[in-house]
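Bench notes, afternoon.
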Amino acid sequence: MNHAQTATNNHFFSTISTMKPFTSKQVNHILILLDLNHSAASIHCQTHISVSKICKLHKEHHSDLLISKGECPKILSLLNLCYSTQLLSSGQVDTAPQLAHHLQELKGRPVSAQTVCHSLRLIGMRAVAKVKKPLLKPHHKRARMDFTEKYLH
C-alpha cells in the first residue's frame, strides 16, 4: 500500500469515527418537530440529521410520545371491530364475506373478506370450521325414546 492510499484510508476512517455533538438549538428544534408529530424522515429532510439520531433523541427526551410506524391507515377502526364481534356473537352473520358486506354498507367503501379475517385475527378471533352433526329425523327420535323406555326400569 502506498502513502496516498494510506492517507485516503486514514481520512475515511477519521471521518466516520468523529461525529459533531448536537447544539442545544438543534436538539430543541428536533424536539419541537417531534412534539408537532413530524416523522423522523421529515425531520431528517429538514435538518439533515440522520433518522437514527433523531430516533435516539426521541427515545431520550420524549419516550412518552408514540412513534409512527409508517403504516397505511387501517381500513377497519376499533369501533368497526367491536361491531363485527357483536354481529358474529349474535349470529346475524356467520362468515367473513357476510361480515365484509355489512361493513361495506356501513362504511360506504369496499372492504374485502380477507381484510375482515386479518382484523379479527388481530383481536384474538380466528376462523373455525363449523362442527357438523347428524340431523335427527323423527324415526331417530322415536328409536331413542324406545331405547330409554326399554332400559329405564
